[in-house]
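Quick illustration, no need to memorize.
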Amino acid sequence: MVNHSMEYEIITPNPAIADYIKFFWHLSNKSGSEKKVIILPDGYFDIIFYTFDNKKFRTILVGLYTEPSSYNIPANAVSFAISFKLLAAEYLLRKKLSYLLNRQASLPNTFWNLQLSSTTDFAGFANAVTAVVTGLIKETIDQRKQTLSGMVYNSNGSVTIKDLAGAVHWSSRQINRYFKGWFGITLKSYCNILRYRASFKNLKEGKLFPEEHFSDQAHFIKQIKKYSGVTPKELARNENDRFIQFSTLPDE
């Protein structure tokens, strides 16, 4: 996708690593000026590798977000990134991310020894990460956590805690302890974010009312405003393409 000098691409992961990675993405600001954007919560955490200001590099880990956040994309910045699913925290990064709720942290530019440069191509990046991730998958996934993750994503968050508890044989308290400990939010909050994110497709098509997952119009408007800071109508309008994820994330 190219939109006002912003070039965006995604690559879906190999099925062998799809439990851990939602997709790889590439974003370039090809203009000669800084681009002011708003980053919206989407239910995934990211590692972003980017170059700017005459080939300076930076690597950052972005935790889960529960609120919109303003960000300035430098002129001519090029980013390669990975959007991770829940299981990646424990089985790939092997660290709890609760401390990064609504925050980000720097990582060493040698992270995962990816050997990135200003000439790295996007497909090459995705292949390199896939090779690293495949090598990191050595532990057997806890079946309860795999089932929980699958149910949450397959339903876009529209699943009850009761149903999840029954499927994974955990109490709601145990599930919330897991979510709070690893990600800093409750299961209910996480599911709310996924439901809100799932509404983007309808909003981009001009449908300013909930088709599913929301009890009524008032609930829908409240959730959209909570996570984007604006009404459904304002989000759908996306003036100046300022909501970067709304502009670029693919319809599903």
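The longest helix spans residues 122-136.
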